[in-house]
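Human:
I keep going back and forth on a fold encoding question. Comparing notes only helps if you start from a blank page. Show me how you would write down a chain together with its backbone fold. Write it directly below this note and I will take it from there.

Assistant:
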Amino acid sequence: MPAEDILYRLADLFKVFGDPTRIRILYKLSEQELCVCDIAEVLEMTQSAISHQLRILKQMSLVKFRREGKTVYYSLADDHVATILAQGLDHVEE
């Protein structure tokens, strides 16, 4: 059994995946790197709402970002995130 603090961190990670908007953002970022304005347009949401969700995803190390001039582009932090999404989808589609 993992240590108690690890279990709490794992539970926090799964909480982040409990929001459909964050899942939609992660799926879009699994397809390509996007800026906030592009994500907002694709998901038909405000940039403010997207920024809020991206902040949560960054805090959990699920997304990373890079600056190009004044524009910030987001992508998945690593292949683990894509794997979690794919395995979760496989599980619910069975």
